[in-house]
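Protein modeling request. Please complete all fields; requests missing the sequence field cannot be processed.
Requester role: graduate student
Desired output: 3D structure, token encoding
Chains: 1
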Amino acid sequence: MDIASISSTLAPLAVLVCPIGMGLCMWMMMRGGKRKESQSEQDQARQADQPASLELLREEQRRLSAEIERLERRSETEVPADRR
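Delivered output (84 residues):
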């Protein structure tokens, strides 16, 4: 086989390889972007499950402490059944 015939055969392939390769690169980049979007959506969902601020946590702690104190006072005033 002659070099001229090889180059004339490979020239059209080179013309096709460039746009196909570019299309594959673009497709891979788009897939990566969707993956990042889904990860950011998951992060937002996790943050939505968490309290918005430290102040909300402190308020919840105050509320729970008051509830614990109320229950402890109530249990102290009740007479256990075995002491009756």
